[in-house]
User: Fold this.
Amino acid sequence: MHRIAHEEGVFPPGIIPMDSAHLLWFTGFLRAQCPLQPSPPGKGLGLLRLAIISLYLSLPLAASPLSAQTTDPLGPSDASPTAPAAQTKTELQAGTDLTRQGFLQNAIPHLLAAQRAGADPYATAVNLGICYLGLGRYQEAIAVLAALRSSGYDTVVIDNLLSQAYLGVGRPKTAMDEFLRAAALTPKDEKLYAFIADACTDHHDYDMGLRIVEIGLQQLSDSARLHYERALFLGRLDRLEEARPEFDRAAQLAPGSYIADLARVQLALYDDKFADAIDLLHQAINAGHRDYQTLSLLGTVLMQAGAAPGDAQFVEARQALEESARAHPDYSATQLGLGKLYLMEDRFAEAANHLEQARRLEPENPAVYTNLAQAYRRLGEPEKARQLQAQLAQLLAGKKPVQAAR
Assistant:
């Protein structure tokens, strides 16, 4: 793991370690495990989602919704510039502990108090940046991190967080510039490429995500993770024939790994071998990889394999998708899958609710509109169904839908 300039001795005992690999994983952990706040309306952006990379997927992680903690367990903060050094240190420690536990909203007052009292500027600003980013408060993240850089700190951690924040406010060119700064500092850091690529997925910028992983593969040509990511982006861009050999390559590079299992699932789906894909997903889950994405994929594949109401496989699909939605409600594939499943059960109001969430998260997916129109027709709301069909026609003509049914 690479140590970055300015990082030696920055954090007091117990504060988040500042080697780049640990912090990049830590931010990914928080963002993958905690439901996050929505992006500003009108941006066309989904919610942040970062899957934990394969090296860490087997760790026992406690999911803790950011909004669940309404009372600060450590009490209010009132540190001032004249606060004693012990109080300043306590505020910084409290803010960092809350950040580490996933209580990002509650961490912010402590970190701001520590900042006002003159606590370590790097520790407070980076932790504040993580909190703002995790809560979808991208402009505030940019402000605090840019100010930190202007004060003389310039690390891969700052570049990484700024890149993700600029994606959040719809500035992909600036995000790419920040990524390139980070990559110049640590060109062999697989996690850097993986996390920025995942942020591109969050914001449906698949072209940029593909560029990110291809830059990474120039440095790490034998990275199974990056080959797998490249295959996913190619698939999302409808370049399916190019994607298949990348899944093959990922499976060959990391035999027996979780990434290899996921790649083999995708290859089985290419060949319509649903039973093989389901077996592989069961193996992955039984091995401890019960994350929201694997559960979502299992539910979706079970339905593609022909599960119907009353079947044991249909019950399993529903349970997998519902567990995925509880763990991460802002994953569009899960919301779409649940919407389709509830349509099959004649649960039309619930289907419409989940499909509306899928549309908010992925407004350019035609499957959302066809299923949502069906739900509204069955609910006796033909005008909403008509609007959705018109929006689908716009989408298929290469235009973004301009009006949402309400």
Summary: The CA atoms of residues 309 and 345 lie 6 Å apart. Residues 1-74 have pLDDT under 50 and may be disordered.
